[in-house]
Write a structure and sequence with these properties.
7 strands, 4 helices, two-stranded parallel ribbon, alpha/beta, 28% helix, globular
Length: 134
């Protein structure tokens, strides 16, 4: 009998874009509490000098569990969070994000999300960008 193994597909990827971090969820995933604990640890480790803005691509998610939603609302590992989705289903799935402990917004265009992320520098942001004019 042959044992067929599926290749390991990550549930998300995280990359450092210098001015912000980019987190990209795999299509069709259900985000659970363990996923959020993992992403918080990864985002924190990627910014050892302090918090930075976070760009999150959700693509076509399956769902977000209630426990994961609460962890996202309470999370403070970034200075701002821009969520980029592909449609209004993503907007509905992430509507709870407006109650987040850090400023958060939903976008359907990445360029608008990046502009919003980088327009203001939070005092705890250590990405090296200059502060916005007062």
């Amino acid at each position: 009998m042959t044992d067929l193994q599926q290749p390991f597909l990550p549930r998300y990827t995280l990359s450092d874009e210098k001015d912000f971090l980019r987190l990209r969820w795999a299509p069709g995933v259900t985000i659970e509490a363990d996923d959020i604990h993992s992403t918080i640890a990864a985002v924190t480790a990627a910014s050892p000098k302090g918090k930075r803005p976070l760009l999150v691509h959700i693509g076509p998610l399956e769902r977000i569990t209630p426990e994961a939603k609460q962890l996202l609302i309470d999370d403070t590992c970034s200075t701002r969070t821009a969520v980029v989705g592909v449609d209004n289903v993503g907007r509905v799935l992430t509507a709870f994000n407006y109650r987040s402990a850090t400023p958060s917004r939903y976008f359907m265009e990445e360029s608008a999300a990046i502009a919003w992320l980088t327009e203001y520098i939070h005092p705890n942001d250590v990405s090296g960008r200059r502060s916005a004019p007062s």
